[in-house]
Amino acid sequence: MSNKEVKAALKSAREAIKNKEFKDALKHCKAVLKLEKNNYNAWVFIGLAASELEHTDQAQTAYKKAVELEPEQLLAWQGLANLYEKTDQWDFKIELPNIYQRLVELYASSDKNKCYEIISKLSDIYQSDKEYLKLAKVWLQLIQVKEEEAVDKNELLQLLQQMTQLLSDCLNEEERDNETQQHLITAFEKAMVLMDPVPGEQHKKFSADYVKCLSKLPKDEPKMIVACESMLSLYPNQSYPLEVLCSHYLKTGVQNEGAVSCFSRLLDLAPNSGLGHLGLGTKALHALCYISRLSSSTGWCSLAEAQFKMQRYSDCAMSCSQGWFTLLYHYVIQIMNIICSCNLGHACVALHQINVYPVLGALKGRAYLNKGQVDEALKVENLSPTELCLFLKAASQSPDCGEYYFFLGRLYWDMGEETRKDRSKAHTHLLKAAKLDPHLGCVFRYLGHYYRQVANDHSRSRGCYKKAFEMDNTDAESGAASVDLSMEQDDMVSGFAALRADPEDWVCWECLGEAYLNRRSFTAALKAFGKAHQLQPSSIYSVYQAAAIKQTLGKFREAVAEYLQITAQQDYVPALKGLGECQLSLAKCLMEDCRDKGAIELIQQAIQNLFRAVEMRPDMSCLWKLLGDACTAVGTVTPNSVQVLVPAPLAGLDPNTQSHTLNQAQTLKVGERCYARALKLMPEVPSLWNDLGLNYYRQSSLSSFTEDNLTSPSLLLEKAQQCLKKAIMMDSDNHSYWNALGVISMSKGLENFALAQHCFIKSIQVEPNNVVAWTNLGTLYLKNGNIELAHKAFKIAQSLEPLYVNCWIGQALIAERVGSYDTMDLFRHTTELSTHMEGVKGYAYWVCSTLLDKSNRDSELYRYNIVQMNAISAAQVALSKYTERIQSDPDAFIMLGFLNEHLQLKRQALKAYKRAVDLLKSMSSTEELAFALGSYGRALCTFGQSEEAVRVYNSTPLQELSDLAGLALAYCRAGLIPESIKAYERALAVAYTEKEKAYILTALALLQHRQGNLDSAKTLLFKCSMLKEPISESLLCLCALGLVHSDATLAAAALTELLKQGSASVNVTEQQCLLTCALLALQGNYSAVQREASRAVHSNPGNPSLWALLSRLVPQYYPKKANVRLALLYSGVNQLASGRHSGEDSHRNALKTMQRAVLLCPDDPATWAGLMAACHTENTSCYLSGAAPSRQGLEQTLMSVTCFRQKLRQVKYYKLHVGLFPLPGPSCSACFVQVLNVSPEHPAVMLSLRQVQCQRLLLAGRGTVLPDSVLEQLHNTVMLNPTNLGAWHWLAEVFRSQGLLVQAVMAYRQSLQLASQLGLHSSQVASLLRLALLALGNCMAGVPGNEWTDMIIEATTEVLKLGSSPMALLFQALLHYVTKMAARETRRLLERLAYAQDYPVTVAQVSSWYLLRHLHAKNDQELINVLLQHAKMKGDKRLLEFHSLLASSSS
């Protein structure tokens, strides 16, 4: 893609974004990035498009990449800010201020208005998060920008005033930042300078704010004093600066003349000022002049302070009584705050001595309340009518004291429910207390209680709790309640603010995770809890919540790992419960795939963990219910595979004994007891009755009973029915209860079909979209023979849920009854939906029936149902799961053995037949046993156990032709020829058809010839050929017999009859060609030998065996046309094409043939090139099999030996060289240049030169981009050689290496068109396979688009039309692996290639690698073991090493 194309693509992306076609915009941008990975605009456009598509992670990554590329550009920063603003995600909210800060820096020099706007947003964030230092810096930055613009001083003054107002809140914080305080003071000072007029109202008010600010800063006392004096000089009648100075002197204890003067001046301006009186009284106290100050109430107060410090509490109270009434109450309250917190006895004694005032009775009640003795406080109130009104009198005598009203309201709150709900009591007094003293935090806590519990106003309640916690951060009750209400109301702002203030606070992260969890934002909650656990690894809660979320999302394995992490530290009941639930869910998933052993292990673990939880909390019904579910789950699998290890107490044994192993019936009985225990705790829960009824139903389905289970199935079914009726009585609107009762009622033992029909109809009425009830109703109709109603019910079920397998099974059974052609297709569909036992057996039956009927092999129905649908493999896999679960069905094992035979799985077929025979021996079915024994004997004979096969066949009645023929074959393979002849003669007597007799006669002829009876053999073969239906095999034997004994007449006659039969299979065609050539050679017609072989090759150009035969025959029988060098060369090439290397045949392979060719013609570069190809093949084979290559570097050595011998002939030599070696030497280029000097118009040499130059250029530096001019020159060079298929392939590879995939596809299609025009069959296959490989590479690399998938399917389908091709099948399997990795079809295709016997080793090994990866992803350990065993048999060491790597990486 050139620069113009990049610009065009970016323009298209911009237009697509403008038109809101964001997916198209992404495609254009990705096309740009393939060439220019660092294109800024492309990354920005990706971020914008992904943001609009709500792909937030992709948008964030794109914007950040653009920011890294061009940090000074605005677009990416703006996009990132917009993304963070509109996305409600905690990590985005935390990063947003940094983005704003960067935008402020960029806008400061370009767009002032934007800069102000961003600063305003940043200011709001910092203010809400209370990050005052950052807020101050932002405002200073804004003021600096304004100063640079030379704005009006009034505007600047307004900004400074706003800044002081915003920063003044920092003075109320406990932790104050010195730098922030200095910024605040600087802002005040600058504003004071700009303010005009002086003096003036605005200046006076601002000066008071300045003084107030300084009074809160202990370190700036000198500035505060100077500011107060300056304000007094300008505004001498203002008392506020004097009050600030007096407060300062009292706090610091300064009693100099300046302080006394300040107190006096304050009293002159405000005679009732408490600060002035307090200051003068304190001065007198310090001077020990008590008598001189007796006339002053402040003196009495100071005297009381002195007495309090001496712990003379009664004297202190009496001194207070001599002063002002209000001061008395105020001071006694302060005394009681301390006393009540230290010594309740002293408090009550003191109050008893001075109980003259009603307020003291209130204080006594307060003492009891502070100590938590509410009853005593109530006694204080209820002792007498006088004391009953103590609180009320105290409040009426001090109407401005909020504490009295608070304690009165609290007393009403603690008195009970009635006084709480009475607004005139608790609520009214608490509200008045809050108005009188808004800084009393406990008042707001109780108001929060009232609004939450009584008024149900959560918004007000949260506000009260929040204010209470802000006033007293040690109030844990208010803080917890505020957080709970925030999460209930989905308030995330407070959580974000807390995290910005302290990102390392793990408690905040947990609270944020809870908030996300309440919103059901599971991914965000998972991240938050993960962060909390990272900050606080010892926190169990965050790990538990993460595990619970993963359980909710269905990630059970990950959840189990999290739960185990918790239970390893302690027995945490919620974690044990979640662990048991996850293990039970995993077990059910394995049961759906018929992996019963793994499911039983998980159920056993679930029982162990749930029992640990029950031991800790036996009062929790849900734990007993889960235990019952775990025990009942074993009822699905076969009884033989259930051996569950349960704790002894759960099994009803001595708790001190070890765990006990239970069978299926015993485990179900334990489940029954668990449900009963749960019902004892919660008897009114209908779901528990339903579960108990289903448990009884599972127990009744067991056909055999042990000694400890003497209950009959009918009694168990009646119990189940009663339990379900009880559940329906409690909850008649639950459709599943009605459905379960219907299933139980129609089961064998009850068969109450009327009740079952009623239950199913009621279930449908409760829930019309009830696919299970409709299916069960259809099953009921089908069982009663009402096919029409059954069909309607199943049809409705299919429309409600097309993926529900049971309704499809019902339709298949109906089709089977009426004899429909769709029966097999329907059963096949059921196996694709899920593994259901009835559907699996039905499909296997129809596949086997179709295979047994050999008359339909050429029909379209057979090709579709068996060949195209890969029916044999699919049925074999499904039936294997069936027999793993149901191990007592001999019919299933017979069908499984039959399917295994078709798949050449001999050992598996043998095991299946043996299991069927063992089962049938215990039954009374004689015919089925005879059939199974015959099949077992056939499998033994095929497997090589001939003696055992003879014994098995002899145990059959030997009345069927198949048994007699099998016995004869077993005798033959065991070396018992006479017995074999006798058996064949018996078989001939029972043969019905002419074809059967022909096969038997042919076999007898072969046995007679083996014994040396030539005449008998001829007679039998002649007799066979005289039948009405002669077979080709007998004619082949007769012809071969004539050739072996040099009887040309006999051979010619037999061959003539053979050729009259017309077309035959591939193997027969090869044999016919060989026999014809042998007959011609026997007759001495050597020239015709070459013609016959050539004719066969012309008719079958894709058959390498015929080419190899021709290459051997021509030099031997027609030396005039023979070129021994070419014959050996072509023979070796054909052997290479057929994949024949030393690993397959140590005597006849390509390497030995090429070595002979080189020895014969050492000066021919083509033979050396063939030898190099053979060496390369051998090394590749060694590499794939895991062996060490024995010929490393030999290719380079061979090239150097022959490189300079014949310049002109190196063109042919190089054609193989380019494909074998990574980097040709410079001598090759020089060689071709010399050739061009001799023959400048030689296009082939020019092409080879360009190939050398291009190959060196590409491979010298990885990722080299060729200019467009070079690519054009290469294309023109190939056009000079338009009929050179290899040149088009090479050009396509160059285009592919440059990322020009469209051009590569066009080049391959050009080569395909050329091969079709020239009629080159092998070249067509090569072009199609290369095209498929190109598309497959793109699919595996994740290149978007469906065109590559379609191209693979199209190319491989065309290849398979031309002939069999293991490579095309491999490409199809890999396509399935990429697109549908977890699908069963993927495994079937890969297994077909991996276990094939006649496919090239490379194909089998590559398919084995991907099959191993597929099985690892599915965690199917059983099939992995089978594959590894097969690899050991084949010596595939690299697959074993690959398995070790996968196992280590997964652990």
Automatic annotation (TrEMBL):
Residues 143-173 form a coiled coil. GO terms for biological process: RNA catabolic process. Transmembrane segments: none annotated. The keyword Cell wall biogenesis/degradation does not apply. GO terms for cellular component: Ski complex. The keyword Cell membrane does not apply. TPR repeats lie at residues 40-73, 506-539, 771-804. Keywords: Coiled coil, Repeat, TPR repeat. This is SKI3 subunit of superkiller complex. It comes from Cyclopterus lumpus (Lumpsucker). The gene is skic3.
